[in-house]
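pasting Energy-converting hydrogenase B subunit J for the record, 76 residues
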Amino acid sequence: MFAGPIIFGFILGFILGSRVRDDTFPPSSYIVLILALILVAWNLGPFPYYTDLPIATGFVAAAAGIMAGRILFGRG
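structre below
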């Protein structure tokens, strides 16, 4: 498992998530968003030559970073 794409994806997602306005996503849309992100990450597959998980770990980390940045520093 390589930590580079995971760390970079989370940091980039965190920065993007901190710029999201409060009225963009209502709280109920997070369930749909999480399911869509998992589906996209599964279809993307792992990075070339990575055999840790069958999903794109960098994409999942970016999605988690967006949600964390939105919750912690979302613009309102």
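The helical segments are 4-18, 29-44, 57-73.
The chain has three helices and no strands.
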